[in-house]
Amino acid sequence: MTTHSREPGTPPGTAVPLSADERAAVTALAAGHTIAGAAKLLGQHYRTVNNRVARVNQRLGFHRTVLTVARCVAGGAIDTAEITRDVTLPLPELSAEQLAVMTALAGHDSAQAADLLSIPERKVKETAREVGRLLRTRTRGHTLAVLLTTGTIPATAALPRPSVANAGAAA
């Protein structure tokens, strides 16, 4: 399976292949495990899993693993069966504000999402935690993976787009 690259100088839409080990690590993170939890689940050393995830982050051009997880889920690069296994379906209905925040977080970090939505970063983080509690997910990456997998937020939210800083410079 592949997902799309954001690597500088790489043409848009270029696929970045994930090795089986990288796919397993990112899938574990999407299912709500921490790096340590993923390492234990996969029977591997923490550093091994951390390095694999770091390589995927680097290839996709992200500094935050949660964005890598969202991109891999949205791009179909990982098996999504594990993601919703421990989540009660159908999902509870989310407010328009919750959906807007989570959609912004699928492709941006908290500060960028706050700028994009013109709300305080603290509100973005509070809303993300609130949605996580509602869905009974374990991590923000798991929350986004569930929302992307179920189609609650569109997969396009996690696809490449100009960053907030670059968008202002281009205008």
TrEMBL record:
Example of a GO biological process term: regulation of DNA-templated transcription
Molecular function in Gene Ontology: DNA binding
Species in which this protein is naturally found: Kitasatospora phosalacinea
InterPro entries found in the cross-reference section: Sig_transdc_resp-reg_C-effctor (IPR016032), WH-like_DNA-bd_sf (IPR036388)
Stated name of the protein: HTH luxR-type domain-containing protein
